[in-house]
Amino acid sequence: MSNCPQSSIANISLADDVDQWSEALIVKPEVAADVVWPHECPAPCGRQLYQNSFIFIQVKKDCTGAPMTGALSIVLDEQSSEAWCQWEPAAEHRENGSEYEFRARVAEIHSIKVIRANMGYPQVIINLQTGCSPPPFFFPSGSVSDFRQCLGECVQLRRGDTDSNIWVNAECVSCSSPVHGASRDDTPAQPKKSVGADGHQNDGAKSPTTGPTTPTGDRLPCKEDETQWRWRALQGGVSVVRNLRKGWAHACNATLDVAAAAAELLDKSSTSAPYVPGGAAEPLDGRPAPDDSLPAEPLPLLPPPRCGSPPSPLLIPRPNRGDSFASAGSDWEDCAVLVEHEHEPWQTRSPVSLAEWNAWFDAEGRLQAQGMDCLRRAAYYGGLSPQVRRLAWPYLLGCFPPTCSAQERAALRAAKVVEYQGYRRQWTSVTAEQAQRFGKFRERKHRIDKDVIRTDRGQAVFASEEGEGLRMLHDVLLSYAFYNFDLSYCQGMSDLASPLVAVLQDEIDAFWCFQRLMEQVGSNFHKDQNGMHAQLQSLHRICKVLEPGLVLFLEERDCAHFYFCFRWLLILFKRELPFVEVQRVWEALWARVRGPDLHLFLAMAILRRHAPAIIQQKLGFDELLKYINDLALTLDIAALLVEADALYQRYNAVLAAAS
What confidence score (pLDDT) does residue 515 get? Predict the structure, then answer.
């Protein structure tokens, strides 16, 4: 017979000097003898109202390691006509996971808390009226709302008064133990009854289990509550760093899931101020630190970075030292707290029209003061209409300075025409006799001829072998090989050049836009492949933060090198999307609203969507490579851009906290 886990963790305290930290260790929960853990109840037999077979829990004491996957279901028992909620480990975990099996009547549920964290999967915490609570259930696939709605069909749920993420069983009259993850204001307002060690109920009586009560019967906060709260926060599926040696910087490695639970534990104080090590230091983005003597306001959203500037890190607020979060005598004021970052929402808009484009220019043909910022944000959130792409792409790629007038642009382009013709003459002047003694020229020309003839032949501009489209593409690539002798031509460059030729419809403009694009992605084609290895390593780091379960799976199968994403990053998803959608994605990448690495977060968004299927099918590298390649032309790019934007902001928030 198993017992309900109570909590006991090592003291995690913040000394007056934030640089002095004691080692923090998570201790395995102890058990109490007064409540039975509900996993040995007989399994109900009846109609299944809800089931999700991909729900997992974290069972390791430091909340790390491989997750334990199982099925969360709601079953209507035929004999008793009662609804049951249960979680059973998957077949591969049955031997070691039976002790974590959970089963309880839906009517015995006191409340549920839905945590939609800034990083990681959504999760649900189920609180029983007995005070027991199973580990949080993580939802890598499926909707948390579906589970909550099905639960609401069995019992009446009402939203918490102080936290909209908490749903309380309206039929629940009393609760003998503190509710994990819910504030006391969210529980029903009736006087609470305590449960003694003998299992009998006592109105307002003190007991070793419940602690002191007020004259109205409400329990006073006690040290046992704090440890239970702490354990539930740490059970949120995130690891907390050991050996916190450097104060706040190391404490910030705790993830935002823990921050959310801790903030709720402190009654979600609304007064917070940006905090950096050393007290009165300036915030990370260089803005002056706010005056602590003034009332703190919610942290404002930071504007997107301007062109060429690195993304601004996001500050993590902490409660003011003067705030009171618990009962008198509590030591919670000394605990460092992270607060979840509310990211900037996606601003859906229509593509930039020709009229809107013209409105950004003054009488001399210059982009107005905020014109470049408007262009970047508009291209990022809504894209460009076909009539505007030919005009705007040279600006996004940096071919034209934003402040140049129409006359200055014409002079600049005239100079570029002369320069391009010089590169073109170098290879057009090579005679057949010279070519016989010019092995590198013959090799490069042969590779270009072979790749051009099979590039985007389904597009009208490249349909004819004798057409202008293929000729311009060929000449742009061969001229670039003479412009950049070191890099020359590599397979894949034709994929990058063809949309430029198709959109700009001018050989010289396409060449200089291609040259600017290669300045961004040229390292992808180096012979040592250092550029690609660096990107794959960056993707690994991003995935380790945003999708740790997938990384663990890939490491077990020696696939954590992420080579199956090689084609995505090499040619910027060119072969994964229809031709028009490629143009939309590239505009978003060139806008640099989220910095130069948005393509990594777009890859992360795709992987995150398909992680459950990859893990469930237990794909090896060959199968995984085929699975990824088969995704071509099936991706919902509009939704993926929104998700990539959110993932970027989540990851950036973690980096800002760690710094």
Answer: 97
